[in-house]
Amino acid sequence: MKGRAGSIRELPGGAPLHYDARDAACLAAGTQAGDLGGRRGGRVTSTQEELEGAASAALSEGRSPGPGGTRLGASGICADLVSVRDLLQALELAGVPLVMGDPVTARIVGCNRAFCELTGYSEAELLDRPFADLTHPDDRPRETATWVQALNGGHLEWRSEKRYVRKDGRVRWAVVRGAVIRDERGKPVRTIGVVKDITEHKQAEETRRWSEDRYRGLVEATEEVVWATTPEGLTQQHSPHWCSVTGQRPEEMLGRGWLAVVHPDDREQVLQSWARAVEAKARYETEYRIRAADGSYRRTQARAVPLLDAEGRVREWIGMNIDITDRRQIEERFRAAQELSLDAFVVLRAVRDAGGEIVDFVFDFANPAAGRLHCVPLEALVGRRLLDVMPDLRAEMFPLYARAVETGEPHDTEVELTAGGRRVWVRNMAVKVGDGVAVSCHDITARKQAEQALLEADRRKDEFLAMLAHELRNPLSAIQFSLSVSQMPSVPEPRRAWARSVMQRQLCQLGRMVDDLLDVSRITRGKITLQQAPLDLRDVVRQAVAAAAPLIDASKHELSLDVGARPLPVFGDTARLEQVIVNLLTNAAKYTPEGGRIWLSAGQEGAEIVVRVKDTGVGIPSEMLPRIFGLFEQAHPTLDRARGGLGLGLTLVKRLVEMHRGSVSAASEGEGRGSEFTVRLPAVEAAAEPGEAVEPASSARPRRVLVVDDNRDHAFALALLLEQAGHAIGLAHDGASALEMARSFAPDVVLLDIGLPEMDGYEVARRMRRSPGATELKIIAFTGYGQQDDLRRSREAGCDAHLVKPIAPDVLLAHIARGER
């Protein structure tokens, strides 16, 4: 068997030779270990330290192996049995890390398993690795110097402390006892080292040094009195701070001389409590008054602990006196302030049984707020037991109070409890005060209710997002399938026309949903500006009926309209008021079973114009009426989503009406009994003048239109639409080509996307405005950006209008028809 770390030598005949620690020590020391062949089954133990020392001594005398094996000692004992391999095996069995090196290259040529475990590397990874790779960078110069000195004959063996850097990056401290093995001519042929891991010892030493330094720093830095006594409680060393505070000379405070400055009324109690603590070897804590150097008395808190040796005997007492005079005065002021506090505040004193266990608390103090919280007079609290007054605290709060007293750890928790026959939420905070606790209870019922409302709002938000996903996917799916149908060559033209109508309806639905979402966002952030003017609300009602008619007709509802013959003058935004009425009609149509009835009326009642929308629909549960106008609210949310909608319509109605200084209300006799919504707007003196009619697109003269959009599908679709309307079209897909096209094409109108690559639409508009002959050019920003800041920037860049995608084709054509600026 090859001689390497971890192998077992075989005796002649194939029987393995077993070593224990004592065998290894004997072998390493070069002494007779007895008849090894006859001790295979025996075990005589030796300490690892003995083995390491013996191994180092033996290795320092070792010679290179000859044909018959290596003699480990000059005496020649065990010369026929013991080899370096034997020693390696013995050290391996004893768990002693051992490593061998090449004295020329300073690289590892052999090691045992224990050394691998110390460094975290495998044997294969360690072989031929420089020792310096494993040595901490700060230790390398010293280790190199020791290595060179040993090789040059300065030492037969050496001992050093160093740090190994493990494979995982951790550092281990070790003591290395090494030796140089030389041949018969004295030439170094191997180095060999026995390693002992002393990391834990180093850490303990560092911890002890740090602890001593910290204690010394604490004593020097603190303004409090720190002192030490003998095991019997006698002061043998003066405390500079004590002498400074009390004016005693150092020799006056020794022994029990310090008692001379304790207030006469406190002296006996202090002496007895100190004697009890010394006798019981227990923690000492008390309060008393001491005479200060100026003759006044200060209140101090004394604490001390015994330091015990390994046998449990007191080695000395370490104590500290803390001046608590100011703190006690503050506590008195705090007690007075608690009389006026809105938070309930009580001081509870522990009640203990014969074994010292806390079984209850007694009210020592309670402020008026505590009486109000529990709906009892103060005299019904002070002096009474806690669990008699509030038995429901036994399970939850009582253990926390008891733990605060026993451990000194404060607690802060929120709890719902019964106080004065009602359920309230309080923030309960308790800190130890003497042998009891001071407890503050802050009523957080309102906050908890608000949190519950937030949780409910969050739940409704989640429902809304799920609803939004459904409502967006359905139109997109319909558009996708209809588009596929329209592209099939075998589909007849009537079905193609039907598919196109489906896509148009679904696109309109998507547009309405996006508009609703944007409107809610703008309104809640105050970003909508009304374009108000005097108008006749009857015209708005008729326009709203025309807009909602397709949905009403599709549901086979009967609509009754009554707006009277007299004008209904209001001051408002035509588009937004139409949106209000359309939303109410749409809501009525969706939540009324097929074939139902809807009534829409408008008239003047005193100083108000009143619009009512009534239906025979599913009605509104009474509990939903107070929050029916809330964001994301729906009275009848269903999984099938047959009625559609995002729960935004009524929110928009309420906000828009309020922006017109009006009000809206809902009424219902219950589920299945229909509902009625009433809008009230302030009336004005005169009705609106008829507005200037928009010139029909079909009657407009052809224009030269430059379409600038980096979305090629959108640009080509728009160009095709404009060509069908009779306009000449130019196309550009970035800012540079748009400027070039504007010079060569000479457009009357530019439809300009804002989000262009490299040069945005604002910069394109500014450059077009600076070009010659651009005074009559009409630039229309046509983009997906629709915030107020976007409108401002497009206006400052020279755009004549700002249209937000998507937009109805007839509206776009009308803007182009008015080509002049």
Key structural traits:
flat, 5-stranded antiparallel beta sheet, alpha+beta
Largest sheet: 5 strands, antiparallel
Structural class determined from secondary elements: alpha+beta
Oligomerization state: single chain
Determine the N-to-C terminus distance: 103 Å
Summed up, the helix count is 24
Give the overall shape: flat
Q: Taking strands numbered 1, 2, ... along the chain, how are they ordered across the largest sheet?
A: 2-1-5-4-3
Sequence stretches where pLDDT stays below 50 over 5 or more residues: 1-46, 59-82, 638-644, 686-699
Average pLDDT score: 79
Put the structure in a nutshell:
This protein is α+β, with helices and mostly antiparallel strands.
Account of the protein in words:
With 821 residues, this protein is of the alpha+beta class. Helices cover 38% and strands 23% of the residues. Strands 2-1-5-4-3 form a five-stranded antiparallel beta sheet, sandwiched between helices. It has a five-stranded antiparallel beta sheet with strand order 11-10-14-13-12. Strands 16-18-19-21-20 form a five-stranded mixed beta sheet, covered by helices on one side. Strand 10 and strand 11 form a beta hairpin. The N terminus is likely disordered.
Describe how the helices and strands are arranged:
Layout lengths: L20 H9 L18 H14 L22 H11 L3 E5 L4 E5 L1 H7 L3 H4 L4 H4 L5 H12 L5 E9 L5 E12 L5 E10 L1 H23 L3 E5 L10 H7 L17 H17 L3 E8 L5 E12 L5 E10 L1 H14 L5 E9 L5 E9 L1 H7 L11 H4 L7 H11 L3 E9 L2 E11 L3 E8 L1 H42 L6 H32 L8 E4 H18 L3 E5 L6 E4 L1 H17 L6 E9 L2 E8 L33 H11 L3 E5 L7 E8 L21 E5 L3 H13 L3 E5 L2 H11 L3 E4 L8 H10 L7 E6 L4 H9 L4 E4 L4 H9 L4
